[in-house]
Amino acid sequence: DAGVTQSPTHLIKTRGQQVTLRCSPKSGHDTVSWYQQALGQGPQFIFQYYEEEERQRGNFPDRFSGHQFPNYSSELNVNALLLGDSALYLCASSLAPQTPGSYNSPLHFGNGTRLTVT
Amino acid sequence: DAKTTQPNSMESNEEEPVHLPCNHSTISGTDYIHWYRQLPSQGPEYVIHGLTSNVNNRMASLAIAEDRKSSTLILHRATLRDAAVYYCIPSDYNNNDMRFGAGTRLTVKP
Predict the structure, then answer these.
(1) Residues of A with CB under 8 A from a CB of B
(2) DSSP symbols for A13-28
(3) How far apart are CA B29 and CA B109, in angstroms?
(4) pLDDT surpassing 70 at residue B1
(5) Torsion angle, CA of A5/B32/A88/A16, rounded to 10 degrees?
(6) Is the dihedral of CA B10, B105, B78, A44 positive or negative?
(7) What residue of B is the nearest CA neighbor of A93?
(8) CB A106 to CB B102 under 8 A?
(9) Residue B42 phi, psi (nearest 5)
């Protein structure tokens, strides 16, 4: 049973460029969340996708955008990269509750994409 | 959003029990208490969650105070593999917007 897979594992970009990170959720999961983790800090929530729509967003600028495909996989796009965007980007998947208001399944995380902006 | 307070770091000896505390005094009545851990060079890993009652699974036990303002993650016999950063996260049933703090870095000594 494949877990959450992310690609690429490492990436180096130049300030001002654009980057696309990819995530395949755990088999059977339909919800994808993205997190940014700076060195030495806990992950920070960027946004969550369900049914191909952004359902909730954290405190990140519009330079951060995403997409979810019909097969539940997802992409994170970052435009106009800044040095401060250097971080580990984590994707997490979960299964939305079958009954509204019931507990969502725990998050399953990938091992992330390490983005370095120079 | 509920604010959490955890020790920055803790140490344990291998094969001894470990009690990791978390204060979440502003937790809302419908928030679940989640614990995740992050091993070096890996993404966070789900450990356990609970609402009001104590919970046990194969990885750990979760003891929740009666007023729900604090909880304790219990590792019954620490192994070297348990060395990680442990995060306590109150969150609603949707698991949207999980707010990870700085967590507790657990060191396990052989």
Answers:
(1) 4, 33, 35, 41-45, 48, 55-56, 58, 90, 92, 94, 97, 101-112
(2) E-TT--EEEEEEPPTT
(3) 38
(4) no
(5) 110
(6) positive
(7) B95
(8) no
(9) -130, 165
Position with higher pLDDT, A19 vs B99: A19
Residues of B in contact with A36 (CB under 8 A): none
Taking CA–CA distances from B103, the nearest residue in chain A reads A42
Do A12 and A83 form a contact (C-beta atoms < 8 A)? no
Work out the burial of residue B66: count CB atoms within 10 Å of its CB; fewer than 13 is exposed, 13-18 middle, 19 or more buried.
exposed
Closest residue, chain A, to B89 (C-alpha) = A42
pLDDT tens-digit profile of B53-87?
899 999 999 999 999 999 999 999 999 999 999 99
Locate B15 and state its tokens.
Answer: 């094969």
pLDDT attached to residue A104: 74
On average, the pLDDT of chain A sits at: 94
> pLDDT for A21-60, tens place per residue?
999 999 999 999 999 999 999 999 999 999 999 999 999 9
